[in-house]
Amino acid sequence: MSVSQFILCKTSNDLSSRGGIKVSEYVGDNKALVGVVKEYFPGDESDDIWFIENIDSLFTHAQEQVNEKAFIHTELYTLLRELYEISDILVLWYSDDYQDLDCVATKTEFLNIVEGSIKTPTCECYVYLKK
Fold first, then answer.
1. 1 pLDDT tier (thresholds 50, 70, 90)
2. Strand pairing report for 125-130 and 102-104
3. What are the sequence ranges of the domains in the chain?
4. What's the whole-number average pLDDT of the chain?
5. What is the C-alpha separation between 36 and 17, in angstroms, rounded?
6. What is the pLDDT of residue 53?
7. Secondary structure class of 95 (helix, strand, coil)
8. Mind listing the pLDDT tens digit for each residue in 57-105?
9. d(CA 3, CA 7)
10. What is the DSSP string of 63-80?
């Protein structure tokens, strides 16, 4: 598993249809994932923490599309809007490091950071949403 691009979220909803895997079922010996969970979900039960690893194609596709249509019409936006509605905490990074993420509390701030990120050549995105 790469620690350079994925989403972690805390929700009681089942995210398996969106490519989600419960952290409690996956973490095993993955020290990187254990570190992220300890840092952003201290004391939380891992049964409610999900991760979605395969976000590279969503970011790449959104970056390609944003020149032709609005961000709100991308699959990335649809997924993130859905996750915002059902999650208490969202941790998202699309780059090399999961530390020092921008901390936000609203859907608008969250989606604005992601949209701004996909409009840059590097497409790097770092955001931590806690409602």
1. very low
2. parallel
3. 5-130
4. 88
5. 23
6. 78
7. coil
8. 999 999 999 888 899 999 999 999 999 999 999 999 888 767 778 899 9
9. 10
10. HHHTTTS-GGGSHHHHHH
% of the chain beyond a pLDDT of 90: 56
Under 8 Å between Cβ of 10 and 98: no
CA gap 61, 68 in Å, rounded:
11
In terms of Cα–Cα distance, which of 82, 12, 15 is closest to 47?
12
Q: Residue 128: CB partners within 8 Å, gap ≥ 6?
A: 40, 89, 90, 91, 92, 101, 102, 103, 104
Question: Is the distance from CB of 95 to CB of 101 less than 8 angstroms?
Answer: no
| Closest by Cα among 91, 104, 99 to 23 | 91
Q: CA nearest 64: which of 1, 104, 121? A: 121
pLDDT in tens, 20-39: 989 888 766 677 777 888 88
Query: How far, in Å, are 21, 37, 98 from residue 118 at the CA level?
Result: 25, 25, 17
CB neighbours of residue 80 within 10 Å: 27
d(CA 98, CA 40): 10
